[in-house]
Design goal:
22 helices, mainly alpha, Glycosyltransferase RgtA/B/C/D-like domain-containing protein, membrane, transmembrane helix
Length: 490
């Protein structure tokens, strides 16, 4: 039996592969263990506390399993309202889980869920970048090195800084799962998960559907005039993206009874009015700019081309109707390698634009997706252009540099945490270290250290997104981290 036939058969893990995987796991695990015992930063994002606090408050009203579904649904509605009705359902479910188990896990200021998501992304990235590498021994070596490189990337540590499973992380997870999956059902699930993880995920889904439709229509055009074929493909691709956007808002409108802030009309009635107004103005500016572009003569001619191409494409697809068009577009999405290339390019462009808009140095969880893309690009180049031995040496050298630079990474994390999350200097990192010790003791029934640091301030959904002299809810923070134990507050 030849090698191609053997690829479909399950392979046993060789001793060499097991040793390489063990070495990579030992390196990553050792660094993680060090950061657990000697964390560079002990902080929890205020939103993480707010999300978990809402779930725990509702969980406390449940007196039997029959009441659990209704209570969980109430908590989802309240969390969605607090989050400006953004519909990030995947993350709400994750916070609901973390709210229930956080106090039962060691190291109070560690989000094991966040750590798991980031490590999962590193594993998916390693699998994606090496899945076509041959022979198997080289694939196993590069996969282990790729996992270690992605897990120990400084941006991964920065993403881990606030112990907050941010929506960008789970969005990356589903994008990687989509690119890795071969079954149509798995890809559909990945798209739905990405759309309901973050607005970026929704844009990625729109881009994926547009790319699939574009490729299907272009292929069906055959020898038709290139301009009309391109116009029809672009127009129907845009309609597919619009259909995804409408479906997304319809689902959220049906579930929660209101539209997300992206298309809400009128004023904002959320408790975060200044932040919501800023978001609204950002989108209004974007739409106004787009509208002004549409008034130029060149754009009007392009719109006429799109219209004519769409009419021709619709006439060509008429025998199968919308269902036939959707089936063909989905088939192209699942089987056409060009779609993956287009989606990858769109991901890079979109994440780069996002980082330029939000700023790389302000909140490190925004450039995390870009770090994943850059790691993928670097590893792909090494695998494609370097001889096997040279490629391993290059990745090992890079990995060694990352490990040697860990002290500098940790120092930078502390400086960033102080500058962004403790802006007025009234709250210090040492205060969080004392709270960490107090929570650990409170979980053992020793409440003296907690009472020594307690300022009797509870969580406040209007409190803000940073810790200041005005908002430092020690009592509310401890209440979340020891829930359901109420011993410290009696």
């Amino acid at each position: 039996m030849n090698d191609d036939a053997k690829r479909g058969e399950p392979r046993a893990c060789s001793p060499g592969a097991a040793a390489k995987a063990g070495a990579a796991a030992l390196l990553v695990g050792g660094v993680i263990a060090f950061t657990l015992v000697r964390p560079p930063v002990r902080l929890i994002h205020p939103d993480a506390l707010h999300f978990m606090g809402i779930f725990q408050e509702v969980y406390g009203t449940v007196h039997g399993w029959r009441e659990a579904p209704a209570a969980f649904w109430e908590a989802l509605q309240r969390v969605n309202a607090y989050d400006l009705s953004r519909g990030r359902l995947v993350n709400y479910l994750l916070f609901g889980l973390e709210a229930a188990i956080r106090s039962r896990l060691p190291f109070p200021f560690v989000s094991w869920l966040t750590l798991g998501v980031l490590l999962l992304n590193a594993g998916l990235l390693a699998r994606l970048v090496t899945r076509h590498v041959e022979p198997a021994e080289r694939r196993q070596t590069m996969a282990c090195l790729a996992f270690a490189l992605a897990a120990l990337d400084p941006m991964t540590f920065y993403a881990y800084e606030m112990q907050f499973t941010y929506a960008k992380y789970t969005c990356v997870t589903f994008v990687l799962l989509f690119l890795l999956s071969r079954a149509a059902v798995a890809r559909a699930v990945a798209l739905v998960g990405a759309a309901f993880s973050d607005e970026i995920g929704l844009v990625m889904v729109m881009a994926v559907l547009a790319a699939g439709t574009f490729n299907h229509v272009r292929r069906r055009a055959g020898s038709e005039r290139p301009a009309l074929a391109l116009g029809g493909a672009l127009a129907l691709g845009a309609l597919a993206a619009l259909a995804a956007l409408v479906a997304y808002h319809a689902i959220l409108g049906g579930l929660f009874g209101e539209m997300p802030w992206v298309i809400r009309k009128g004023g904002f009635d959320t408790p975060h009015e200044p932040f919501a107004r800023e978001l609204g103005h950002s989108f209004a500016y974007a739409f106004a700019t787009f509208q002004s572009i549409l008034t130029t003569p060149g754009t009007l001619l392009f719109a006429a081309l799109l219209g004519a191409g769409a009419w021709k494409a619709a006439a060509r697809e008429r025998p199968g109707g919308v269902v036939g068009l959707a089936r063909g577009a989905w088939q192209a999405l699942v089987t056409d390698p060009a779609v993956q290339l287009q989606v990858g390019a769109l991901c890079v462009a979109f994440f780069v634009v996002l980082a330029m808009y939000r700023g790389v140095g302000v909140q490190y969880y925004y450039p995390y997706p870009i770090a994943v893309i850059l790691t993928f690009t670097f590893l792909s180049f090494v695998i494609a252009r370097c001889q096997p031995a040279v490629g391993v040496a290059v990745v090992l050298a890079t990995l060694g540099c990352l490990v040697l630079r860990l002290p500098e990474t940790f120092r930078s994390m502390r400086e960033h945490a102080v500058a962004v999350w403790l802006p007025d200097g009234a709250v210090t990192l040492e205060a969080f270290e004392r709270i960490d010790t107090a929570v650990t003791d409170a979980r053992r029934g020793e409440y003296g250290p907690f009472r020594a640091v307690n300022n009797h301030q509870e969580l406040d959904l209007d409190g803000g997104y940073v810790y200041t002299a005005r908002y430092f809810p020690v009592q509310g923070m401890v209440r979340v981290l020891v829930w359901p134990d109420d011993g410290p507050f009696r």
